[in-house]
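WARN retry 2 of 3 for item q-0093 after timeout on previous attempt; input resubmitted unchanged.
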Amino acid sequence: MSLNGSLTPAPGGTPALSWTSAEHTLLVQPWGADSVRVRAARHAVAHDLPGALLDGPERVAAQRVDHPDGSATLTVGALTVRLDAEGLLSFHRTGGGELLRERRGHFAWPGPRQFTPVDGHHHRLEQRFAAYEDERLYGLGQHTHGLLDHKHLVLDLVQRNGEVSIPFVLSSRGYGLLWNQPAVGRVEFAANGTRWVADAAEQLDYWVTTGEDPAALLAHYADATGHAPRLPAWALGLWQSKLRYRTQEELLSVVRAYHERGLPLSVVAVDYFHWRHQGDWSFDPADWPDPAAMVTELASLGVRPLLSVWPSVNALSENFAPMRERGLLVGTAQGQPFHHSFPDAGFGGRELPVAFYDPTEPRARAYVWERVRENYYALGFRTWWLDACEPEIFPEQHAHLRYAAGEGRAVANLYPLAHVRGFWEHTQAENARHPGDAAHAEATVSLVRSAWAGSQRYGAALWSGDIPATFAALGAQIRAGLSAGLSGIPWWTTDIGGFHGGDPGDPAYRELLVRWFQFAVFCPLLRMHGHREPRGAFSAGHSGGPNELWSYGEEAYAILRAQLGLRHRLAAYLAAHLEEAADTGLPLLRPLFLGFPADPRAWEAEDSFLCGPDLLVAPVTRLGAREREVYLPAGADWTDAASGETHPGGTTVTAKAPLERVPVFVRAGADPVLDAVRGA
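OK item q-0093 returned
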C-alpha cells in the first residue's frame, strides 16, 4: 500500500529527514550524540510545545543520504535512521543491526502514526513499533507492580500516588526511547507490538538514542533532559519523620533525644497540618510559636528541617481569592476550580474542597514562592517536601482540567516537573542573594512524591509514595528504586517500613522494619517515615504512632544503630558515586546489568542490586528468612563482606542473612570499600 508521501528538503542547514503525505508531516532531526528527535504533525511541525527535552542540543555531526528507491538515511554517530518510501522509520546501529522499527497496526492503515481528532486542535495520537520476543524493557518511572522488566505490561501514563510516570524506556536491544509527550495516555508492551498513546496532543514527539552499553544510553538521556545537581553531603544522613510531629515542642523533643543518645541525625520533617488552612503556606502559631528559634536550635544540633509544602488551596485560605482572581489556580471546563477534598486543620479537621495552584503558569510559581519566602525561607528553611505533587485528582478526569500550558489531557504529566522547577529556581535565586548563608552554594533539595522526565535537573529527590507496610511491598521497592534510576532520577528514597500501618510492638513488623532499614542504608537517601499504629483518621489532632529508631524494642534498636553506623562509614563512597550520577547520569542504585551488560544472567536479576560499582546488595524480603541465594555477575570476583570468602563471578551462592545484616558482597580489589562495610 502506498501512502502517497514523499521526501522533502530538510529545514535549515542541518541534515535531517522530512517527509510529507496527505496524513501528516514527519521530521527527524539529530538531537544529541547518537540520538534523534522524531516529530510528526497534521500540518507544520511546531517547535514550541511543552516537553522534557532541553532546547537546542549541541550541534552534532550528521549525514543524510537519499537512495534511488525513494528511501533515505540519516546517520548520527552510532545511530542510523532509515525512512522508507512509504514513510516508515527504522533505527539501526551504524554499520550494524536493527534496534527498533515502526510498524502498522493493520495493512489498510495509513502508517504507524495515527491522528484521531478529539477537539479543535488536539488529536488522540498512536505510535506503533514492532515487538521483539527476546527484548527486555526498563525504566518508565516508578511503579508498584513489583517488576523490573516491563515487557508484556500495560502502563498508564498518568501521575498517581505511588505511580510515577516517566516515559523513558531502556531496551536490552541497545536503544533508549523517550515519549516526549506530557499528555495522559498509556504504553502497551505487547507480544504483537508496542503502542504509545496520547489521549490529546497537538503533535507526535519522541526521541531515540543508542550507545555501546546501557550506561551510555543513560548518559545521552541526561544530556538530553538535564543532569541532576550534586547532592549536598548532609543529605546522606538519616532523615527522621513519622505521620507528623504535631507541635514544635514534640519535634524538638525527638531531635534532642537523638542527640542525647549519640545518634547522628541530618534531617527532621515538619509535615502537613502545621498550617491553619491548606494554601496558607504559613505556620499555625498555636502549635508552632517560634519556628525561627526552632531552626536555630536544630542547626546547633546539626539537623536541618524538611518543610512540607502542598500545592492545594481551600476556600478558607487567605490565598484562595487572590489566586483565583489572578488566574493562578488549575481551572476546569465548568469553571469551579475544585479537584479534591481534604481535612482542614482550621475547620476542626472536617473536609473541604481544594483547588491546586497551576505551576505551568510562571506567575503562579512566583506567587507561591513569595508566600514560601516570607513565611518559611525567611525563618531559615531551605529544604522542601513537595508532597501530593501529582497532584491527586478525584475523580480522575483530566479532560476537565485547564492549565496555563493547555488542556489537562494534553499536559497533566508536566505538573510535578513544573512544581519542583519553581522551588528550585526561586530557592537558588534567593540563596544567591544571601552569600553569607552557608547553604547558598548548595543544590536545593526537594523531596517529591511525583516526577516527570527532566525533574532530576531541578533537584528532585523522589520517594515512592504511600505504600503498604508488608514484605511484598519491600520487594517491590527494590524494583521501584532501580526503575527510577533507569528513568534518570538518581536521588531516590522510600518510607522505611512502608507508610500504611505497622505496629512497633509486633515482632513480625519489627523484623520488617529492620530488613527495610538494611535495604535503605544503600539507597541515595535514608528516611524513616510512616503512619504507625495506633493509626487514626487524617485529622488535625492525629499524629500517628512512634517511629523513631528506639521505638521498636532493644533488639531492633541495636541493629538499627549499627546499620546507621554502616551508613556513615559508607558516606564517602556514596557521595563519590552520587557525584558520578550528576556527571554521567549513572545512578547510585544499579541493576546488575548496568555494571555487567555482557552477562545474560545479570539482565534477569531483580531482587539484588549494585550500589555504585563495587557493592552488591541482596536485601531480605521474606519474614523469617535467615539465608538467601545471591547471583554474582560474571566479570569480577566477589568477596562476602561478612565471611571474607571470595567467590568467582557467574555463580550463585547461598549467603547467610541473620537478622542483624543482609548479604553484601564487595568487588574483589575494592579493599577500602570492604573495610568500610566490615568496620575495619
